[in-house]
Amino acid sequence: MNTSIDCIPCFVRQTLDAARMSSDDPAVHEQIIRDVLRWLSEMDMSLSPPALAQRIHRRLRELTGIKDPYRMQKEQHNQMALQLLPGLRTQVETSNDPLMTAANLAVAGNIIDLGAKSGLNEHEIHDAIRHAAEKPLEGDREAFRAEVKQAKQILYLADNCGEIVFDRLLVEQLGTHRVTVAVRGMPIINDATLEDAVTAGLTDIVRVIGNGSDAPGTLLEDCSDEFKTAFAAADLIISKGQGNFETLSHCGKNIFFLFKAKCPVVAASVNLPVGTHVLWRTR
After folding, report:
1. What is this structure's pTM?
2. CATH code of the domain occupying 71-282
3. Which is more confidently placed, 265 or 283?
């Protein structure tokens, strides 16, 4: 998916958010914004939004020396999600359709995306989870159910912190013996890394690998050999979040994308309204 001109304000907002997390000095904020704006004026719009975001955040780390400015927010969201997990697991276990209930809750958790929105608060997250049942997944649910049933090796691409705790509900329904979960190779925005998978308890139940990349999506050419091997071997890939959709929607693999359409550009690409819980398939 190419970068749209409508992505540019989002890049600028992300830059300012990360700058303010990294320093209290307005002069530093101005320096960072000026530097990134100069670079944005010459960016290659044929690249995907996560490819450009990767370069912006690399430059931010160079300018500030801070490797993970979102660390505090990530920890808070993980702990909040862990507190909700027992009640949500009961909701799944008592559902008439545990698989789709777990999938819908995992998508509701995709609201925890600091790349898409600044200042996300606990009330918004609780509200999204509470009302998840009112937003059924839009897509081919029966095809999803059939593919899950017959798959031998499932690769599950995680997205954000906090959200990764809710992913555990779906992973448990998929059958942990055949699932590998992939996370980011290093910190980028509030995306989940191996450390967050440990906190979520996923490493206790499935194989978890880092993808070797610091992009807020899945740039296959930038990923590790271990990840590429798992990607090639999987007969079903379940991909969470907009960033993974933006980078993999035309890669040719059997992928079901699960995400909350938070961005008008992404929503338009799947011809659904902003706010929709999306189950979108590609081959």
Report:
1. 0.94
2. 3.40.50.10880
3. 265
